[in-house]
TrEMBL record:
This is Dispersed gene family protein 1 (DGF-1), putative. Residues 36-132 form the Dispersed gene family protein 1 N-terminal domain. The lineage of its organism: Eukaryota, Discoba, Euglenozoa, Kinetoplastea, Metakinetoplastina. Residues 139-206, 219-339 form the Dispersed gene family protein domain. InterPro entries: DGF-1_N, Dispersed_gene_fam_prot1_dom4, Dispersed_gene_fam_prot1_dom5. It comes from the Eukaryota. It comes from Trypanosoma cruzi marinkellei. Signal peptide: none annotated.
Length: 363
């Protein structure tokens, strides 16, 4: 028991409900809700009973908002002067029915502005009608949400003439398509044999996979050949990949196996194309201790035989299944290992390599 606290930047919107009973109830003791740089919206609702809500909403500092309006209690439209007697205790801002108001309709932290048609214009990181920080399926009616992509439901109701009423329910599934068929046979007059069929394919946001942000703990933030060869440091260098909000890594014990490395620069036998490349591919990804839901990291393997004559760029490829909720496509990020070799020296080394290779071929 205790007060309900809203973390900074939160938004609780209670709107568009018609229920039998109070619309909102805060904890039993001490019956208060404390908003921390957050917004509580109670708008466009109808309830019944002695009060709309119980408890007290505590503001107390800047950035906290309690927005109230367009409420009906026991069939009577409430005016702001009626709110206290209806159980709405606390400092609130009234908003009338039909008024375009960002605090009523939009998640402020991810909303840039409101359009002329009262729609929320999302900033970066805001999605959907309300500019929420996460992707959500569209709700279609009471207690009914859309299914994942490529999943469809077909319901068929057939009524024919029969002396005895019977009912049969069967479900057939093929791959990613599920068909629900309900066939009911009832007694009808000989002149009437109606058939009704309904089929629909649910909607789901088609979200493109984001780009991975790749960083390292190496000095200067970029890997060099010296880092791979050891560099005299006793502390392992970490390679980290991060997801941008609102994406999160899936809760998958095999998450690390969904990431792989692909070289995009010229293959170098003593670089990624050699033993070190195999060591890197077999290294274990773990969740970052500070940001486990968005950051993965691995210890860059040390190999003193690593040598590259030119910079080596490597792409990190990640399957969409590694992201909670999935996404369309694959996730990609890249990093470059600097050769620490001057251009003139690199040309000389390349020429020497060619001479040695030619001599070996002649032998």
């Amino acid at each position: 028991r205790g007060s309900a606290s809203f973390a900074s930047g939160s938004w609780l919107s209670v709107r568009g409900n018609s229920i039998s009973g109070r619309l909102l109830s805060v904890p039993s003791y001490p019956r208060s809700a404390d908003l921390v740089q957050s917004t509580l919206t109670l708008h466009g609702n109808a309830g019944s009973g002695p009060v709309v809500m119980d408890g007290t909403v505590a503001l107390g500092s800047a950035g906290r908002k309690f927005v109230v309006g367009c409420l009906t209690l026991n069939g009577q439209v409430l005016q702001p002067m009626d709110y206290r007697s209806a159980g709405i205790i606390g400092k609130f801002r009234p908003v009338a029915c039909g008024v375009c108001d960002a605090d009523v309709s939009c998640f402020a932290a991810a909303t840039r502005a409101m359009s002329g048609s009262c729609g929320c214009r999302c900033a970066e990181g805001g999605y959907g009608r309300d500019c929420l920080p996460v992707y959500l399926p569209r709700v279609d009616g009471c207690n009914r949400t859309s299914a994942p992509p490529q999943l469809s439901h077909t319901a068929t109701l057939t009524a024919t003439r029969s002396p005895t009423p019977t009912q049969r329910l069967s479900t057939t599934q093929y791959g990613s398509t599920e068909t629900l068929q309900v066939t009911e046979t009832v007694a009808l007059s000989p002149t009437r044999t109606p058939t009704a069929s309904v089929s629909s394919t649910p909607w789901w946001s088609d979200v493109a996979c984001p780009t991975l942000a790749v960083t390292t703990t190496a000095a200067g933030g970029s890997l060099t050949q010296n880092d791979i060869r050891g560099g005299g440091s006793a502390v392992p260098t970490l390679l980290m990949v991060a997801l941008p909000p609102p994406f999160r890594w899936a809760r998958d014990p095999q998450l690390g196996t969904r990431l792989s490395f692909v070289p995009v620069s010229t293959a170098q036998p003593r670089g990624f194309g050699g033993p070190w490349g195999a060591m890197l591919s077999n290294a274990t990804w773990v969740r970052n201790a500070t940001n486990p839901s968005t950051v993965l990291e691995l210890a860059v393997p040390v190999h003193r035989g690593y040598f590259i004559a030119a910079d080596e760029t490597i792409v990190i490829r990640c399957d969409a299944a590694a992201v909670s909720g999935g996404c369309k496509g694959v996730l990609l990020g890249s990093f470059t290992i600097a050769s620490n070799t001057l251009p003139a020296a690199a040309s000389t080394l390349s020429a020497i390599t060619g001479v040695v290779a030619g001599a070996a071929a002649a032998a």
